[in-house]
C-alpha cells in the first residue's frame, strides 16, 4: 500500500541548486511543508527566497535537486501546468491588468482553470459570473467588481491579487511578500485574513514576508535562508532563540 497521504508533505524540496553562470544563487536547499501548514520563508535581501519561489512555480528550472508536489516530482513542468496541479502564487509587485475591472481580472484565471481559451475578442462576458462574484465577496471586493484595478486602494489591489490566485483553486499557495508596500498597521490583519482563508479552504501556504511580527505571530513553521542556503528551520519559538539565526541577523531585526 502507498503511504502517500497525511504522512507525505504537500511540498518537499531536496538538494535544490540554481546557478546563473558562475553564480550559485541556491545551494543545496532542503525543506518540506506539511499539509495545512502556514510556512514562512525568511532571510535577508539576496538570500534566495524569490528564486526558490521561481523554481517552485516552474518559472526557473533548477540546476540540480528535486521538487516534489504531494510526492510527485514536478521539475521541468511549466507554470501553467503546475497551476493546473494546484500551485498558486501571488507576487511581491502586483501582477494585475491595471485597466481591467476586478471582475475581468478574476475572470482570466477562472477561464483558464476551466480549460477554456481566453479571447480578447469573443463571448467571454458573463462567463462564470457567479463564481467570480463569490470570490470577490470572499476577499472583500464584492462592491468593487466593476472598478478598474488601477483605481483600487493599494490594500484592495493586494486582495485582488489574492483573488486572482485563488481563482485557480490552488491547494498550495505561494505568497511573495503580500504586505509589501502596506502600512505597518495593515500588515498583520491582512496576513491573518489570508491565513484564516487558507485554513478554511483546506490549502497549504508558503509565505515570504519581511515583517517579523507577522511571521512570528502567524507562521506554523519557519525556514530561514542565508546566502542561498537553509540556515535553520523550526517552530517560531525555536527560530527566535536559535543562536545562528540571531548572529546572522544581528542588527537587522530579521528583516527579509
Describe this structure in words.
The protein has 256 residues and is of the alpha/beta class. Helix content is 33%, strand content 24%. The strands form 2 sheets. A 6-stranded mixed β-sheet has the order 6-7-8-3-9-10, with helices on both faces. Helix 3 crosses helix 4, helix 3 runs parallel beside helix 5 and helix 6 packs parallel to helix 7. The chain is globular. Mean pLDDT is 88; it is low at 1-5.
In spatial order, strands of the major sheet run 6-7-8-3-9-10
Rg for CA atoms: 18 Å
Compute the number of helices.
9
Q: Uncertain spans, ≥5 residues at pLDDT below 50? A: 1-5
What fraction of residues sit in β-strands? 15-25%
Reported for the largest beta sheet, the result is: 6 strands, mixed
What structural class results from the helix and strand content? alpha/beta
Number of strands: 10
Oligomer: single chain
Distance between the termini: 42 Å
Q: Tell me roughly what share of residues is in helical segments.
A: 25-40%
Order of helices and strands: EEEHEEHEHHHEHEHEEHH
> What would the average pLDDT be, to the nearest integer?
88
Overall 3D shape:
globular
Amino acid at each position: 500500500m502507498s503511504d502517500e497521504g497525511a504522512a507525505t508533505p504537500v511540498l518537499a524540496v531536496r538538494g535544490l541548486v540554481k546557478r546563473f553562470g558562475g553564480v550559485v544563487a541556491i545551494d543545496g536547499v532542503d525543506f518540506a511543508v506539511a499539509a495545512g501548514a502556514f510556512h514562512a520563508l525568511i532571510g535577508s535581501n539576496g538570500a534566495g527566497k524569490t528564486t526558490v519561489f521561481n523554481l517552485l512555480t516552474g518559472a526557473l528550472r533548477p540546476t540540480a535537486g528535486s521538487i516534489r508536489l504531494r510526492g510527485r516530482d514536478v521539475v521541468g513542468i511549466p507554470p501553467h501546468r503546475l497551476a493546473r496541479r494546484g500551485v498558486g502564487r501571488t507576487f511581491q509587485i502586483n501582477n494585475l491588468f491595471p485597466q481591467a475591472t476586478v471582475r475581468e481580472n478574476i475572470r482570466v484565471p477562472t477561464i483558464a482553470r476551466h480549460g477554456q481559451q481566453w479571447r480578447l475578442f469573443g463571448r467571454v462576458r458573463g462567463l462564470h459570473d457567479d463564481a467570480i462574484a463569490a470570490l470577490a465577496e470572499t476577499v472583500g471586493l464584492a462592491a468593487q467588481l466593476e472598478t478598474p484595478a488601477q483605481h483600487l486602494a493599494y490594500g484592495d489591489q493586494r486582495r485582488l491579487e489574492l483573488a486572482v490566485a485563488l481563482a485557480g483553486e490552488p491547494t498550495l499557495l505561494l505568497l511573495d511578500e503580500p504586505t509589501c508596500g502596506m502600512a505597518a498597521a495593515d500588515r498583520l490583519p491582512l496576513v491573518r485574513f489570508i491565513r484564516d482563508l487558507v485554513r478554511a479552504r483546506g490549502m497549504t501556504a508558503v509565505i515570504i514576508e519581511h515583517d517579523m511580527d507577522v511571521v512570528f505571530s502567524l507562521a506554523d513553521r519557519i525556514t530561514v535562508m542565508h546566502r542561498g542556503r537553509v540556515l535553520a528551520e523550526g517552530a517560531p519559538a525555536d527560530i527566535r532563540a536559535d543562536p545562528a539565526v540571531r548572529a546572522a541577523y544581528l542588527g537587522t531585526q530579521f528583516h527579509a
